[in-house]
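Supplementary Note 3. Input sequence used for the single-chain structure prediction.
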Amino acid sequence: MRPGLKIGSWTLALTALLVVTVLVSAGIGTVAIPALTVARVCLNALVVPTSLSVHTGALGTTGVVLPTVSVGTTHLFDFQTPETSRIIVMTIRLPRIVLASLVGFALALAGTVMQGFFRNPMADPSIIGVSSGAAVGAVTVITVGVSFPFGLGIHGAAFLGGLLAAFGIYALGTRGGRTPVTTLLLAGVAVETFLGAVISYMLVQSGNELRAAMYWLMGHLQNASWGDVTATALTLPLLFGVLLGYRRHLNVLLLGEHDAKTLGIEVERTKRVLLAVSALVTAIAVAVSGVIGFVGLVVPHVMRLLVGPDHRILLPTSALAGASFLVAADTVARSGPAQLPVGIVTAFVGAPFFLYLLRQREVAEL
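The predicted structure, written as discrete structure tokens, is reproduced below.
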């Protein structure tokens, strides 16, 4: 099958799987809602702009006159649905489900890039320290009560902490303008261990905040809002586009840095871009969800077995599969009598499954 046709067929199938997973998930809860009703509620929420008007008005009491733009919209559909179902789906369940899909998309995408970058299927997004750095930032705000500037709170602290950790590891692993993969990996292990000790110390010293800190460290989507969804959805597609632009570079890097240089790839520049964008993608995901493990490790590994190592196909398919996987895991996490952090579910499912895959691989190599 030609690569273009293969990409299209897999993308279409995984997109359909994601849509079905979202619709089914939104219907599961204390109040069961049929998937068809959920679909109608979602379709009723779709609007298109119909008019654009510009007028002027005074801004406060300053007398400064500025143009004001207003956009008229109209709904595409008008299905009859119960008001209770609409409120439950649109205000309670759907923000959490959409955020879960975006976080799963981001983690699987970053994990795919890291596995190609390090040429190691055991790599995941946390390997460059983003998760540990984000955890230090978030736990600091939760346990110490440090207030962050600009009202960023826990999300901002986690995001900046993750980026600072990734930048520190990159700086430690770079010498003379070169960043050897092995050195970067060892620097990441050392920094992650150090940051883990910092987190442990803060948890030991914490008081009533211990439960909240532990809950964040296990990953959760319980307080998801449309604001979190909007912030994530506005940034993630751009970063995804950048990584897609480097999909051929990732394929060439699989041959080794020497061969990549021979084939005309600017290896060091490519590595900087891949590391920076992957760190941003991971930091965005961790900032809104906490530390969720195994999504960026298991999903790319499984998709590589299904579609092969070609990153032209592997990047989009892994991202879509990661979105469906985390939506399904979060559905399980919130469906019990007591809501669990979704990180517990992903670890409970992901760890045994990954061990099974490793065992099958070992048997195949005998």
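The CA atoms of residues 34 and 60 lie 48 Å apart. The chain has one domain: 3-48+69-365.
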